[in-house]
Design brief:
Length: about 200
C-alpha cells in the first residue's frame, strides 16, 4: 500500500506590532530641542563690534613743486567689543588707508584675544609716504576759517580708513565659528595743516 502524502506545514511568524518609541528616545529628542533653543538664543556666534573713537594725523607735510603732494603719520584709535559668550581670537586683521581708491597705507593688526563680553581698546599708527593729491578740494567736510562773517572754505582732502577684524569664536568649549567685522571711515583732512576736520564710519 502506498503511504499517504505528507503535508508540510509552514509556520508563519506572528504579526509584528509597532511598539511606541521608548521613553529614553523621547527624552533624548526633547533634550536636543532644548539644546538647540539654548544655542540659538544664548550661544549663537555674533560678529565683533568695532567703534572708531578717534583719528589723528600727528605729523603732516605738504609739498607743492610741480604737483601737490602730502605725507603724514596716521593714527587710529578704536574699541573692539566681543558680544559673544565665548572667547574671540582675532588674526589676519588689518588697517588699510585709501585715497581716491588707491592704497596709500597698510598695516597688520597683531593677533590677540578678547574675553567674552569684554571690550579691547586698540591704537594703530603708521607713516604714509608722500603721494600726489587732486587740485580740486573735497567739499564734503568744509571748514570755516577766518573772522566771523567771512565765509572761506579751507582746501580739504578725503581719505578712507578701513579696519577689518577677523577671527574665531569658541562656543560651548568645542565649537569654533569664524566671525568678522569691518569699519569703513571717511576722513576729511585740512590740506593747509593736516588737522582732521571730521570722520564718519
Amino acid at each position: 500500500m502506498s503511504k499517504p502524502p505528507k503535508h508540510h506545514h509552514h509556520h508563519h511568524p506572528p504579526p509584528r506590532h509597532h511598539r511606541p518609541p521608548p521613553l529614553a528616545t523621547i527624552f533624548i529628542l526633547f533634550l536636543l530641542i532644548i539644546l538647540f533653543i539654548i544655542y540659538f538664543s544664548l550661544f549663537k556666534p555674533k560678529d565683533p563690534q568695532i567703534s572708531v573713537t578717534a583719528i589723528q594725523l600727528p605729523t603732516f607735510s605738504l609739498s607743492s613743486n610741480t604737483t601737490t603732494a602730502v605725507s603724514f603719520t596716521f593714527s587710529l584709535y578704536a574699541a573692539v567689543r566681543n558680544p559673544n559668550r565665548g572667547q574671540f581670537s582675532h588674526f589676519d586683521s588689518s588697517l588699510q588707508l585709501l585715497y581716491a581708491g588707491n592704497q596709500i597705507g597698510f598695516m597688520f593688526i597683531p593677533a590677540g584675544e578678547i574675553a567674552a563680553g569684554r571690550t579691547k581698546y586698540m591704537a594703530a599708527t603708521f607713516s604714509v609716504q608722500a603721494f600726489p593729491i587732486s587740485n580740486s578740494p573735497a567739499t564734503n567736510f568744509p571748514m570755516m576759517v577766518g573772522p566771523p562773517g567771512v565765509n572761506r572754505v579751507s582746501p580739504t582732502m578725503e581719505i578712507e580708513a578701513r579696519m577689518e577684524m577677523v577671527g574665531r569664536v569658541r562656543v560651548l568649549w568645542f565649537f569654533n565659528h569664524n566671525v568678522k567685522d569691518v569699519a569703513d571711515c571717511r576722513v576729511a583732512v585740512a590740506i593747509n595743516d593736516g588737522s582732521v576736520l571730521g570722520f564718519h564710519c
